[in-house]
Predict the structure of Resolvase/invertase-type recombinase catalytic domain-containing protein.
Amino acid sequence: MLFGYVRVSTKTQNPNLQIDALLKEGISEKNIYRDVSSGAKAERHDLDLMISRLREGDTVIVWKLDRIARSISHLLKLVEQFEKLGVKFRSINDPFVDTTSAHGKFVITLFGAVAQLERDIIIERTTAGLKSARRRGIQLGRKKGLGKEAKQKAILAASYYRQNNLPVTDIMKLAGIKSKPTLYKYLAIEGRRNCKECGIVFWDKNQNLESAYCIQHTSNDNWISREKNRIKV
């Protein structure tokens, strides 16, 4: 059985040119599936519906390749899916893509080789770039610390929190923070600590978050040493 697929990017575009071309190929109008979707979008309702109805021996025909495939890699995935179903595929305006012929299958194989080469080159360039950056001592990944806007939110949130008269949800609204984990992350950066011994909340940026002790549970020598370090900073 013959199936046709038509796609236009917007509702204002006319699909009749594609439909007429498919009808001339002998496809019944009830077997022509249509989507209104931009080429970049992966979700296509009628394409998925058509594929679900394909059976071994069927043939899918499109007016042009860009009507069904978003990229070469997407085209290859579709062709692979059709082959597993025992379905042929061809494009009216791209006669070199025709899995009903040996020549068309060869072209698809070339497309696959080109796509693999492109992936390998990207990986190679990325790896070389990372190695070069490391040799130059360039720090990779996200920069440590907070950005300017996030820092302002952290300071504001800490100020409200230290007043001790507002619920956490109100502090989040006032500071423009969307989640509790983010709020407590900001508060930790601003110096909020829980004593490892008694659990009491206190403020000290110089103590490690995982091993913080309040004054009552810190030895005098350690406390004096930390205070000296804080004065130096």
